[in-house]
Amino acid sequence: LGEYQLIKQIGKGSYGEVWLSKHQKDRRQYVLKKISLVNASQKERKSAEQECKLLSQLKHPNIVGYRDSFELEGILYIVMAYCEGGDVYTKLKEQKGVPLPERQIVEWFVQVAMALQYMHERNILHRDLKTQNIFLTRSKIIKVGDLGIARVLDSSNDMAKTLIGTPYYMSPELFSNKPYNHKSDVWALGCCVYEMATLKHAFNARDFSSLSYKILKGRTPDMPTQYSSELLELMRSMLNLSPEKRPSVNRILRDPFIRRSIQLFLESTRRPGTAPNSASRQPLPPSPSSAQQLQRQQHQQEHVRRPPRPPTSAAPAPQPSMPPFSSPSSRRNSSSSCTSAPSTPAPAPKLPKSSSVASELEAEAVPESAAARLRQQRHHPR
């Protein structure tokens, strides 16, 4: 495949295949998605083109990096960064019932929230957020991936209407076949954080009808007892039956508990010999810090040169027993296959700024200046 050497297949779905590959010149590993367009319908072609367009335009430390895309003999190839650390779903399975420390949960939670904040500010819904689509780099930085069914809204007040996603993480409004917006992603985020805290799904059932009944009943799942009341309250708020009562990701990132946790994380990374995900619980510092500080810290970590290491690959995450509730053309297999190596794509057209941002988002928005400077920087090789 020209500049790319295929190493091994690491995923397969109705859409095509996912391969781990190596670039012939820079010798880095990338994930290469193969999507057959030979017998593709117009809808499937549009979905593939949409993924390429979205990936090429989204530049954020916590979103899987896009490198390139090209078509060859009826096959669309999408080249992305490779997440050597695997996915969060697999990491939780590896815990074998041992709860994660709160600091680890909050670090993952905050980074996923920052990725969603970036998307929501551009009126983009993820629509399939789950622990299998949340990846880790070698340096343990979170990357949100699998944007193939993401939808760009005309404005932040627009409501999507397509029933799509993975059942365990679907919001009540989706089960009710009602229009939905960015608060549906917040519900999925709540499900993911609950899963990180309990090592099990927030809502589980043997079939789709039972799962639908459980979620629409509106009963918040039992909360774990070993974590702080602040974290538990955030989980409850994200899993509120009413989307209007759920916090936006901007409000989540402005929560005093989250801001103090970010400051604690930043301070721990500056202290020699202190791991960011240390299991020890320490008092939270009094002064809050913005999410953008953490983004800058991650950006610096991503560009630190490291000595070469033998290639490693993450095994694909086992899929949940209940299949995704969507058509084969709109779902893609999730595996530990996205990459974290920094990419150097050609400059992409700038996404339009929303002209009608909802008043809630305007009132709660975290200052964007630092994130804007970060997005303007060109990614360069380690």
UniProtKB/TrEMBL annotation:
<keyword id="KW-0067">ATP-binding</keyword>
<dbReference type="InterPro" id="IPR017441">
    <property type="entry name" value="Protein_kinase_ATP_BS"/>
</dbReference>
<keyword id="KW-0723">Serine/threonine-protein kinase</keyword>
<dbReference type="GO" id="GO:0005524">
    <property type="term" value="F:ATP binding"/>
</dbReference>
<dbReference type="InterPro" id="IPR051131">
    <property type="entry name" value="NEK_Ser/Thr_kinase_NIMA"/>
</dbReference>
<keyword id="KW-0547">Nucleotide-binding</keyword>
<feature type="region of interest" description="Disordered">
    <location>
        <begin position="267"/>
        <end position="382"/>
    </location>
</feature>
<dbReference type="InterPro" id="IPR008271">
    <property type="entry name" value="Ser/Thr_kinase_AS"/>
</dbReference>
<feature type="binding site">
    <location>
        <position position="33"/>
    </location>
    <ligand>
        <name>ATP</name>
    </ligand>
</feature>
<feature type="compositionally biased region" description="Low complexity">
    <location>
        <begin position="351"/>
        <end position="372"/>
    </location>
</feature>
<keyword id="KW-0418">Kinase</keyword>
<dbReference type="Pfam" id="PF00069">
    <property type="entry name" value="Pkinase"/>
</dbReference>
<feature type="domain" description="Protein kinase">
    <location>
        <begin position="4"/>
        <end position="258"/>
    </location>
</feature>
<dbReference type="GO" id="GO:0004674">
    <property type="term" value="F:protein serine/threonine kinase activity"/>
</dbReference>
<feature type="compositionally biased region" description="Pro residues">
    <location>
        <begin position="309"/>
        <end position="326"/>
    </location>
</feature>
<feature type="compositionally biased region" description="Low complexity">
    <location>
        <begin position="327"/>
        <end position="343"/>
    </location>
</feature>
<dbReference type="InterPro" id="IPR011009">
    <property type="entry name" value="Kinase-like_dom_sf"/>
</dbReference>
<feature type="compositionally biased region" description="Low complexity">
    <location>
        <begin position="289"/>
        <end position="298"/>
    </location>
</feature>
<keyword id="KW-0808">Transferase</keyword>
<comment type="similarity">
    <text>Belongs to the protein kinase superfamily. NEK Ser/Thr protein kinase family. NIMA subfamily.</text>
</comment>
<protein>
    <recommendedName>
        <fullName>non-specific serine/threonine protein kinase</fullName>
        <ecNumber>2.7.11.1</ecNumber>
    </recommendedName>
</protein>
<dbReference type="InterPro" id="IPR000719">
    <property type="entry name" value="Prot_kinase_dom"/>
</dbReference>
